[in-house]
Amino acid sequence: MVRLSFRRIAALLLALCVPALASGADPATEPAVTPAAVATIVARLPHATNAFTEGLLIDRGKLYESTGYERQSFITRYDLKTGKEERRVQLAPDVFGEGIVVWRDEILNVIWHGGRGQRRSLRDFKLTGSFRYDGEGWAMTQDGHNIILSDGTPVLRFLDPKTMKVVRRLPVTLRGQPVQRINELEYVNGSILANIWLTPVAVRIDPKTGVVTQLIDLSQLVADAYPRDADSVPNGIAYDAEHDRLYMTGKNWPWLYEVKLEPASATAP
User: Fold this and answer.
1) For strand 201-205 and strand 191-196, is the pairing parallel, antiparallel, or unpaired?
2) Using one digit for the tens of pLDDT, what is the confidence trace for 54-71?
3) Going by fewer Cβ within 10 Å, which terminus of the chain is more open, N or C?
């Protein structure tokens, strides 16, 4: 099994960071050492190899997934225990679907381009409304108060769930450097977990400061999934709060993995 060294993980992420001088970020204000963890496999559940995963979440025992590509964008609900598909809705043929979030009795989804999102009934996925936002839509999660939106930039937006207006912006930094390509999000026990697009790395983000507090090596999952092409990258994090279980997958991967985050033998220098 091949795993990245944590020097390599840090180098990958720092290579995606925009220059600190452009943002005013100060590396001296952050720790010089970032703790690291390895995502190890606890169990495997089947995952559709034609699901180009963009959003993933668990709510009340149900697994929700959204997929991308025009004419291939779906939102699907599965029973987490049985894996049985319960409901699916296909998005319009010209839409490239992105992230989803559950808020009370609604499921919201964003679209890659066009600055538009949709509100749907959680029960039957029927369209109930829409909303607008600036820039691209990549992923969403929620912290019980606000919806959190990623758009591929180093800045997360916290949105009012009723109006979808921005109430706060959170720059995300690793050792003072703004982190690019923040993709799929999941709020887990007071932290934001995020995939970093095109890397076998996830990060844990402090939602108050935006500081990356942990690097997560996903290379064990990548090796096991054996992605079939360069686009089949890790993407998709879902937390089952009821049973304290964490799940991860990737685009077109054959497995949804239940994982455990094990402390690395060494931290990233």
Assistant:
1) antiparallel
2) 999 999 999 999 999 999
3) N
